[in-house]
């Protein structure tokens, strides 16, 4: 059963909600394991080609998404590096992390906005509701990433997550 993502922007905060037809433990697991993430993270046409994860408070996930779709024109072959630093993990209900744009060595970008996300996983009779609350330093920083296509990218990523979860059930 496909669920639409609900998106709300509240100043410097974007809140995303979606229900997945999979148990909470499985949904949490595919967010907490770098090997799982390689199979669904990123928008369509992009693959997670690097996924180095140390999933613990103080640990990080350093990853690279590469555009593999020739139909995406100028994006084809492009790499997008990111780094998430974990602050709080409550299995299987909550993950808090700061997300950065980075380079291949894991150095974080000063030019592109960082954000802090609190992601909760709510059990709904065998299904899971994810609520992702991401805070930027300012509404202008959030606007900058929205203009980069972030909302469409997350929608496609969570569509891929749903497909991956259905194959895992």
Give a written overview of the molecule.
The chain is built from four helices and eight strands, in the order ββααββββββαα. 24% of the residues lie in helices and 40% in strands. The protein is α+β, with helices and mostly antiparallel strands. The protein has an eight-stranded antiparallel beta sheet.
Structure, briefly:
With 169 residues, the protein is an alpha+beta fold.
The tally of helices reads 4
Helix content, binned percent: 10-25%
Describe the largest sheet.
8 strands, antiparallel
As residue ranges, the low-confidence spans are none
Structural class: alpha+beta
Number of strands: 8
Fold topology:
Blueprint: E1 6-10, E2 13-20, H1 24-31, H2 34-37, E3 46-53, E4 60-67, E5 79-90, E6 94-101, E7 115-124, E8 127-135, H3 139-147, H4 150-168
Antiparallel strand pairs: 1-2, 2-8, 3-4, 4-5, 5-6, 6-7, 7-8
Features:
single chain, about 170 residues, alpha+beta, eight-stranded antiparallel sheet, 4 helices, about 25% helix, globular, ASHA1/2-like_C, START-like_dom_sf
């Amino acid at each position: 059963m496909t669920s639409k993502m609900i998106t709300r922007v509240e100043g410097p905060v974007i809140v995303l909600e979606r229900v997945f037809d999979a148990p909470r433990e499985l949904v949490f697991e595919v967010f907490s394991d770098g090997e799982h993430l390689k199979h669904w993270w990123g928008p369509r046409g992009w693959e997670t080609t690097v996924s180095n994860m140390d999933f613990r408070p103080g640990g990080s996930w350093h990853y690279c998404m590469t555009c593999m779709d020739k139909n995406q024109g100028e994006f084809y072959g492009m790499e997008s590096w990111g780094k998430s630093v974990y602050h709080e993990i409550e299995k299987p209900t909550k993950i808090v992390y700061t997300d950065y744009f980075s380079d291949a060595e894991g150095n974080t970008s000063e030019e592109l906005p960082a954000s802090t996300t609190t992601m909760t996983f709510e059990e709904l009779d065998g299904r899971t509701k994810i609520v992702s609350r991401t805070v930027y330093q300012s509404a202008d920083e959030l606007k900058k990433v929205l203009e980069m296509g972030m909302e469409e990218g997350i929608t496609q990523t969570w569509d891929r997550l749903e497909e991956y979860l259905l194959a895992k059930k």
